[in-house]
Amino acid sequence: MKLKFKKQAYQTHAVEAVADCFAGQPKREGLNYRLDPGRAVDASGQAVAALESSGFKNADLALTPGQMLENIHAVQRRQNLPQSAALVKTKVCDINLDVEMETGTGKTYCYVKTMFELNARYGWSKFIVVVPSIAIREGVFKSLEITAEHFLDDYKKRARFFIYNSKQLHNLESFSSDAGINVMVINVQAFNATGKDARRIYEELDDFQSRRPIDVISANRPILFLDEPQKMEGGKTLDSLANFKPLAVLRYSATHNKEHNKIHRLDALDAYNQKLVKKIAVRGISVKGLTGTNAYLYLESIEVSTSAPVARVELEIKQNSGIKRVLRKLSRNDNLFDLSGGLEQYRGFVVADINALTNTVSFTNGHELVAGEATGDVSESALRRIQIREAVKAHFEKEQALFAQGIKVLSLFFIDAVSKYRSYDEAGERNGEYAQMFEEEYNQQLAEVMTLEDTPYNRYLKGIATARTHEGYFSIDKKSKRMVDPETGKKSTETDDVDAYDLILRKKEQLLKFDEPVRFIFSHSALREGWDNPNVFVICTLKHSDNTISRRQEVGRGLRLSVNQHGDRMDAPATVHQVNVLTVVASESYKDFVTALQRDMSEGLSERPRVADESYFTGKVLKTAAGDVEVTPQLAKQIYKYLLKNDYTDEKDRIADAYHEAKKEGTLAALPPDLAAHAEAVFALIDTVFSDTKLPLPEDDRKAKTNPLNSNFEKAEFKALWNRINRKAAYTVEFETPELVAKCVKALEAELKVSPMQYTVVAGEQLEAATYDGIRQGESFKVTESTTDYHRASAHSAVKYDLIGRLADETQLTRATVASILQGINKAVFSQYRTNPEDFMRKAARLMNEQKATVIVEHIAYDPTGETHTMEIFTQDKPKEDFSKAVKANHHIYDYVFTDSKNERDFVRELDASTEVVVYAKLPRGFFIPTPVGNYNPDWAIAFQEGKVKHVYFVAETKGSMSSMDLRKIEESKIECARKFFAKITSDQVKYEVVDGYGKLMELVA
Asked: Could you report the per-residue pLDDT of 697-708, keeping only the tens digit for each?
């Protein structure tokens, strides 16, 4: 199995941010230089000159500090990042760029692609990746291996890469003499430690022709990529890095400690909101003392059924062999004294109420338990058993939902001593305490999950022996071949065991296959950094949470989006956070874990602006379809006043909860006219101001329960409605090219306005007292005058543009069609091309694509395929839901309805109160209509009483606003396609329309 890689816009943005900082650097392939050959030794032992050879080094930076800073400002402006006051110089290098990327978003992929992009644009080819640990070093090397084919397809080049080893110095020879892309990966200990091996890099070595390795490396003027730089900030490390004489230093991390020139940010909040990482759910476990009793009880969960809810409770029961702790399903009025076989501590414990909405069980003696709470005699061992049971249960729940989609589920246990997993004595090896607990809990859970049906999932489970479904990944003692605890440094929580990481990484792809029986992995917490398998869905740390590992680090190992059996990432926007949910089984309460996690995240977002005032908005850029619009002081004032007037900010100008609530419900106040034209971009800018309300709240995994279908699902009216709308169809689009050409010509003539090229004339004079350092750094002149103007004449350029080819690529139209469009527009419009070619091509492509989309929607036709959606989509892949967010319903096909907004909740309550509505359903995501702009999933299917309304069956899309101006273009196109789809596959009895509430619905069906 091979992991597949694809071009992702957010990763491309990170690559372009770096490459654009060097705009204007001339492209020069590796500069040829005389490679120091060193001194060889002849047969008699005499030193002789070695054979001379050529090397290829990175061309020097041709940009002045002023030009670099200007480029950095341009990159920062387009991302609305704070502008650097100056180039931040360090003892290592004058150029220091920071890239912030959240864990799990492909940081390594981005910087490897950046190497290829820098080579393609500027010819630089010598790169060094510096890492703080063996774990990261091995991971980077693995990434270079598995992305090689992908980048060969993209850039038509392969990179030559190797791990620096002081005993294999021939690699340095090739690194210097090879003209292609060369990447050296080196861990900081290889040049910064005091050991004999680490010193070799600075010594003249007989086995390296009496040369110092560091001199051979630094002669190439490499570009350094620092992975996790916050772990390499000591003075000694920085002094050592300076010896590499880098051309530039690029730092990549999710948590930078020291700021340099930050040119890109994709933090935890961005990653979650853009659905680039898994959603987090937490199963908390807490010990509660009940006054006046020592009765052991553990409330695992509450199950919702078609009748009354039941509670899964572990209690002690007197059996012939003694007292054992057993899991039982309890119903209302159950007496625990009787169920326990007469154990005195349970006298008075009669179940009074089981509440699925609050996740609680209350007893007649006044005691109450919340799911995840344990009481009575809860030892360390009992707590670990509960954690293991919860992890196994969570694993099976995910596996049942994801198996049919070809996704292998992995669960990861971190422990702090190998002996708890595997112990050794004279008789050999045997299961440790945790492995024994695991097998007992696994077998018990397996018995509940397995059914007698001959399904693929049941066959899969039967084919895996319990002993083979778990495996330990630890350091291996070379002599005894036994698993051992890894060695860590005095101040480190990580190990440098190469063999252990090699084992973890070597089996990365193997673990993703169904034919590999291992699904549960035990590993040492010191090996945590090595684990970044995308299909880790459950993480359980079998030790007390402490300050050495933050909660953010604890979840970080499972944040990557999962892949299926074909190696495809499961990142479809509509379902990404249904499929990709990471469950953390904590050894503390849900509340305590989430509070600590959110504190970690908030601290990590400390660089984000938190005040929404005029000064913040001024100078920022609005990203609009027509191009970038700079926020003038006047526009900034309007945005500030809009927020103030509607109480969307507090007295300290911080964004208030009222703004976030209104945005979520779709009830934001109208913007003033000057801002309304750029509404989407204005709200995106406001959203860059951080408030704690925006932090993603991990779900309480215990509140998630299956929502069972009820008798409404069996009603004849619902089946009749379903049979009318369940047909699948394929679409075709047929239109004449002249029609598209005419529309494009009309749009270009009406809307194409090219911005003339802007230039700035800066006048200055030399300082009276110039210094050597000032001249060297380009600071010996002072600016006396600066004038900005526009160049409206022809922009003569040495760059040759393929205008037709570029537009054909951007629009996916043929060259002939593009040529016809350009021939059709009048000369005055086309002459703008000479003024600013880049702006002309960008805006022309956008206008042509808009017209293409319009023509496609106008001419789309649906034809039934003969296939239908089965009723199984209402039960298949049904995700568990948090019932505290549910609305109890009477006419719905499920007992509870889960809504996304207040508008939807009001709609549900009115449907439920209506005497005209017989039955309705919120349509599952599996029910979709294919359109040229992506699959579309309507919201509701409603059946009315016959004779009371004109349209008995209705398919509805609920929106907070009915104005087409408020709907995005792409959403508008999907809705238009849906109208054509339903018109084709159904009769007049079925109507599809967009409504903003129950009143509008009744207008349409009456």
From this structure: 888 888 777 788
